[in-house]
Design a protein that fits this description.
With 503 residues, this protein is α/β, with parallel strands linked by helices. It has helices at residues 17-27, 31-43, 65-83, 108-117, 131-147, 164-169, 200-209, 233-236, 264-274, 350-360, 424-429, 446-457, 463-468, 485-499; strands at residues 10-15, 60-63, 102-103, 154-160, 196-199, 280-285, 291-299, 337-348, 385-387, 402-406. Helices cover 30% and strands 12% of the residues. The strands form two sheets. Strands 3, 6, 7, 8, 9 and 10 form a six-stranded mixed β-sheet that branches. A four-stranded parallel β-sheet has the order 2-1-4-5, with helices on both faces. Helix 1 crosses helix 12, helix 3 packs across helix 5 (131-147) and helix 3 (65-83) crosses helix 9 (264-274). It is globular and about 75 Å long.
Length: 503
C-alpha cells in the first residue's frame, strides 16, 4: 500500500455491512462499533498509518450501504419496466432489457457459474452492477475529476465477505476504459475501479502483520475530510451533515425480513406491494430454508380496480418506513379466491441454484421430422383467479418476475471470506480491548456462529437504529431518510453531469 514510482496516491476504501457483522460477532460488539474499529484500522492514527514505510492511511472510508441503496431503487425500477415491457424508455439499439424472470447479478460466484456452465440463463441476468462495482466507479470518477488527478493515482480497497469479489474486481468491463471521457482516451493500461479486495479474515491478518491489536482500537468514529463533491458528500458521509453527532447519522441495515444479502428481493416486493391496493405478501418455503417463494395477492373484489396507484409519489415506500414481515405474512382462508399480482423467489446455495437453472433451461427441440416441440404454457394474467393454499407453487418458472440468487447458503453473511467459527482464535490471539469480549464461550457449531453473525448484522435495524438513524425530536432535526429515491436520483444525476455516464 506504499507509494510507488515517486508519485503520490490517494487511498480510499469501501466496507460491506456483512464484514462489520462478522467482526462484531468475533469481538462481541455491535455492528456500529465494529465499523468504527475498521475505520480506525484503515484511517485512524493508531491503525495502518502508525506503520509502514510511508505511514499511509485511507483518506475516505465509504459504507457500501450507500451504493446498495442506489442498487435497490434501480433494481426495483428495472423489474417495474420489465413488467411494463419497457426498459427505462431506452431506444431499441440500447442495452436490451433482461428476460423474465430477472435474476440478481450482485453475486460474483453465481455470475461466474452461470457464464461458464449455463449460458442460457445470461439473458435473465439483471443489468445492474453490484454495490462494490458502483462504489469503485463513483469514487474514481468523482475524485479524478474534482481533484484533477489520473485514475491510477486513486487506490481503492474493498473489504468484502466473499473471495469471489476478487474475481469481480478483475473483470475487464470494470475499468476506466468504459467510463473515462473520450477527450482523455489515451493508449494506457486500463485502471481497475477496485484495485484490491480483502475479506474479513484477511483484514484481521493485515492488522496482525502490521503489529496492530485490532480489539484495542478505539470504538469511536474517525474524523474524515469533506468529500470534494458537495452534493455527494452528505450521501456518502451523512456524518458530515452539520449540527448532528456522527452516531446519529450512521446508515442502518434493513429489517430481518430483508435477509442478509442486501435486500434486493425485499425492496422489489415492497415496491410492488405499494402499487397493489389491497394486496398482501404470501410466503411459501421450498425444499429447504434457502428456497422461498413469494406472491403478492389480493381478493377478487379488487379485480376491477387498477393495479397501480395513480399518484407516482406513492408508488414506492422508503425502506425504513412501514416494514414488512415477509415470513408468514398472510394467514388466509384456503377457500378464499385471490388473484396473483406478482411472483418472486429466493434461491441461495449452489445446490438450489442448480435446480433453478434446470427449470430455466429451454426445451430441447425434437430431431425427428415433423415432431412437435413441447413448450411451457405462458404465465396466466394477474386477472385470473387462483385458490391460494400453503402448498401452492408456480408450475412454470417463467411465471416469476424476479429471483434473488446468491451462491452462499444462508446468504452473504456466510461468505467464504467471513470469519468462521474455527477462526475465532485469530481474534483471541490479538488480545483484548476495552469493551471487547473474546472469551471462550464453549463449543459452537458453524450454524450457531452464523446465527450470531446474522444477529450482529441486523443489530443496526433495531437498537442502534433508534439512536443512529433518526435525530431526536428535541433537537428539531427529525428523522432522516437515507433510503429515499430522491437521494439516489441526485447521486445518479451528479454522476451523469460529471462523467456523462449512467450508472
Amino acid at each position: 500500500m506504499e507509494n510507488s514510482g515517486g508519485e503520490g496516491k490517494i487511498f480510499v476504501a469501501s466496507v460491506s455491512p456483512q464484514v462489520r457483522a462478522s467482526i462484531a460477532a468475533t469481538y462481541g460488539v455491535s455492528e456500529l462499533k465494529a465499523g468504527w474499529m475498521i475505520d480506525q484500522l484503515l484511517g485512524g492514527p493508531s491503525g495502518l498509518a502508525s506503520g509502514g514505510i510511508h505511514r499511509n492511511g485511507f483518506t475516505w472510508i465509504v459504507d457500501t450501504n450507500a451504493l446498495r441503496e442506489a442498487c435497490l431503487v434501480l433494481g426495483a425500477d428495472e423489474v417495474a419496466n420489465s413488467i411494463s415491457s419497457s426498459f427505462l424508455n431506452t431506444p431499441p439499439e440500447s442495452i436490451p432489457a433482461p428476460k423474465k424472470p430477472i435474476l440478481t447479478s450482485a453475486c460474483p460466484g453465481w455470475i461466474c457459474y452461470a457464464e461458464k456452465t449455463h449460458p442460457h440463463v445470461l439473458p435473465h441476468l439483471s443489468r445492474l452492477k453490484s454495490p462494490q462495482a458502483l462504489t469503485g466507479i463513483l469514487l474514481k470518477t468523482i475524485l479524478s475529476q474534482r481533484l484533477h488527478i489520473r485514475p491510477d493515482q486513486i487506490w481503492h480497497l474493498a473489504v468484502m465477505p466473499c473471495f469471489d469479489k476478487k474475481l469481480e474486481a478483475s473483470r475487464e468491463e470494470l475499468t476506466d476504459v468504459y467510463w473515462r471521457p473520450s477527450s482523455l482516451q489515451e493508449p494506457t493500461a486500463p485502471v481497475r475501479d477496485v484495485d484490491c479486495v480483502i475479506t474479513a479474515r484477511e483484514l484481521l491478518m493485515l492488522a496482525d502483520t502490521r503489529g496492530v491489536s485490532f480489539p484495542s482500537l478505539p470504538q469511536a468514529p474517525i474524523c474524515t475530510p469533506s468529500f470534494p463533491d458537495p452534493i455527494l458528500d452528505p450521501f456518502l458521509f451523512p456524518q458530515h451533515l452539520p449540527g448532528l453527532h456522527p452516531q446519529k447519522l450512521q446508515r442502518r441495515n434493513q429489517e430481518p425480513a430483508a435477509g442478509p444479502s442486501g435486500g434486493y428481493l425485499y425492496h422489489v416486493l415492497q415496491t410492488q406491494l405499494a402499487k397493489s391496493p389491497g394486496g398482501k405478501i404470501n410466503t411459501i418455503r421450498g425444499r429447504n430454508a434457502d428456497v422461498v417463494e413469494y406472491t403478492i395477492t389480493r381478493p377478487l373484489a379488487h379485480q376491477n380496480r387498477s393495479h397501480y396507484v395513480s399518484d407516482p409519489q406513492q408508488q414506492r415506500q422508503p425502506l425504513n418506513e412501514a416494514p414488512l414481515t415477509l415470513e408468514n405474512e398472510s394467514k388466509h382462508n384456503d377457500k378464499e379466491e385471490e388473484e396473483i399480482l406478482f411472483r418472486a423467489a429466493r434461491y441461495y446455495g449452489f445446490r438450489n441454484i442448480q435446480n433453478l437453472v434446470r427449470k430455466l433451461k429451454p426445451p430441447r427441440p425434437r430431431r425427428l421430422p415433423g415432431a412437435l416441440t413441447i413448450t411451457p404454457k405462458p404465465a396466466p394474467r394477474s386477472s385470473n383467479a387462483v385458490k391460494t393454499t400453503n402448498s401452492a407453487t408456480a408450475s412454470n418458472i417463467n411465471e416469476y418476475s424476479y429471483i434473488e440468487v446468491m451462491a452462499c447458503p444462508g446468504g452473504c453473511t456466510n461468505g467464504g471470506g467471513q470469519i468462521k467459527v474455527d477462526d475465532v482464535g485469530l481474534g483471541e490471539r490479538q488480545g483484548k480491548g476495552e469493551g471487547v469480549d473474546v472469551t471462550d464461550k464453549g463449543p459452537m457449531t458453524q450454524k450457531e456462529w452464523l446465527e450470531k453473525v446474522d444477529e450482529a448484522y441486523f443489530s443496526m435495524s433495531s437498537s442502534d437504529s433508534a439512536s443512529s438513524v433518526s435525530g431526536s425530536e428535541e433537537d428539531g432535526k427529525g428523522d432522516i431518510d437515507m433510503d429515499s429515491e430522491a437521494d439516489v436520483e441526485t447521486m445518479d444525476e451528479e454522476e451523469e453531469v460529471v462523467n456523462g455516464i449512467d450508472i
